[in-house]
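for the writeup, i need someone to sanity check this before i put it in the appendix. the sequnce is what the collaborator sent (i think, or maybe the updated version? ugh). structure was predicted straight from it, no edits. if anything looks off just tell me and ill rerun, i have time this weekend
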Amino acid sequence: MNKVSIMLKILIAEDHKTSAETLALALERLGHQVIVGTGADVILTMSDLEKKTTDVLIADYDLRDQLGCVLLRILNRANPNVKSILMTGHGDISLCGREEFDVVIRKPLDLQQLETQLKQWEDSLLQKKAS
C-alpha cells in the first residue's frame, strides 16, 4: 500500500464491526481520514458540515437497519459530489440502488482494487484543485 497524495475523508457504513474496523485501519494507514458506522445512525448523526466535507462513502449493501443506497441518497442531498462505493456479498449486482453508486466491489473486499479506485479519485481532486 502506498501513502496517498491527498487525504480523502471517507465514511464507512458496514454492519459487521470487525470488517468496518479492519477496512478503516487499512485506509488510515494509507493516510485517509475515516469515520466508521455500523448502521444508518452514522449518517443520521453527522452534522451538515461533516456531510458536505465527506469525499467518499463506502457502504455495505445490506446494513441491519437500512440499505446502503438510502444512506447514499441522504448524503447526496448535502453533498452531490460525494464519490461512492457499494460493497456487497450478494451474487446479483442488479441490487436496489446499485446504479446510484460510482463503483461496486464484491466481498470479500479486494484492498488493491479499492486502493486503485481511491487513487483515481485522489488524482481527480488534485487536478481540480490545480485548475
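The chain is about 40% helix and 20% strand. The chain has one domain: 9-130.
thx in advance!!
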